[in-house]
Design goal:
- The chain is α/β, with parallel strands linked by helices and 298 residues long.
- It has three domains: 85 residues, Orthogonal Bundle (Arc Repressor Mutant, subunit A); 98 residues, D-Maltodextrin-Binding Protein, domain 2 (3-Layer(aba) Sandwich); 105 residues, D-Maltodextrin-Binding Protein, domain 2, CATH 3.40.190.
- The chain has twelve helices and eleven strands.
- Helix 1 crosses helix 4 and helix 2 crosses helix 3.
- The chain is rod-shaped.
Length: 298
């Protein structure tokens, strides 16, 4: 092929040596000479001036060298583009996410993925952090987006974005009228509506309890965020929730954020994967996650 002949010719010109070019391409010196002769025959002119002391380009050789490098660069670009077409992103993609990210952030990203890469077939599993981490570790899922800590080992972890946790109450809750007089003991006296063990939101809530020495006298448990929001809005208690999950409720006045010193509590969301090898579909999805995180569009 003409690209092989050009590449060898360019190496001879740059090394100014047939023997060095032969070593570069793992060829014999006679084979290199044969390639050069074939190229010269194709061009119809000699391209190199040769002696026992040197190898250098003549005028025709300088022209072929200059345009030959450009041709090879275009050839490489062409091959990459063709490879992308023949290795296009398609097939299944198993995505797992903890409840906060999975229910309130992930749908927009998956919709974006489907618009731009319709041949990728995502399946989404939503569960608590511990469950998602376990399914990634056992290759049941290609990727997980979770918060908090988990016990699974040998998982690849990449920090993705920060999430703010705030205390929410019903608009007419008595604590909203205390303003600056609010104390930690006021929070301890309230009924706390919390997530189940294994949830990243539950982990954040327990961290708040520990750091603030809060020992709630009453707890109510739910396995997802939506019933917690509805219970708080109905005046059943208070809760620590992600800002991502309460945007609509704050906008329409169904919930209020309780202003307390030391909050919001910031937690980290991470991408977790198991295999060191990534399909093109997975690479594209991870790039989309990074792009959204960089733009702050979660």
């Amino acid at each position: 092929m003409i690209d092989n002949h050009l590449q060898i010719f360019i190496t001879v010109a740059e090394k100014q040596s047939f023997s060095k070019a032969a070593a570069e391409h793992y060829m014999t010196q006679p084979a290199v000479s044969q390639y050069i002769r074939a190229l010269e025959d194709s061009i119809g002119m000699r391209l190199l001036e040769r002696s026992n002391k040197y190898v250098r380009l003549n005028k025709a050789g300088e022209i072929v060298y200059h345009y030959g490098k450009e041709i090879l660069g275009l050839y490489t670009t062409m091959q990459k583009l063709v490879d992308d077409l023949t290795n296009k992103a398609n097939g299944s993609l198993g995505i797992g996410a903890s409840y906060t990210f999975g229910e309130y952030v992930l749908p927009r990203i998956v919709a974006d993925l489907q618009v731009n890469y319709p041949d990728i077939e995502p399946t989404v599993t939503i569960g608590n952090t511990a469950m998602i981490a376990e399914q990634v570790a056992t290759h049941q899922l290609d990727i997980g987006i979770v918060e908090g800590h988990f016990e699974e080992k040998e998982i690849n972890i990449e920090q993705l974005a920060e999430d703010e946790m705030v205390i929410v109450v019903a608009p007419e809750h008595k604590l909203m009228h205390k303003g600056g007089k609010m104390t930690v003991s006021d929070l301890a006296e309230e009924k706390w509506i919390v997530r189940e063990h294994g949830s990243g939101t539950r982990e954040a809530t327990e961290k708040l309890f520990d750091e603030s020495a809060i020992k709630p006298s009453r707890l109510m448990y739910f396995s997802s965020t939506q019933p917690i929001k509805e219970s708080v809005a109905a005046g059943l208690g208070i809760s620590l929730l992600s800002r991502w999950t309460i945007q609509k409720e704050i906008k329409y006045g169904d919930l209020n954020i309780l202003p307390i010193k030391g909050l919001p509590l910031v937690r980290q969301f991470s991408i977790i994967t198991k295999s060191p090898f990534q399909t093109k579909a997975l690479e594209i999805f991870i790039d989309m996650l990074r792009d959204h995180a960089a733009k702050g569009t979660f």
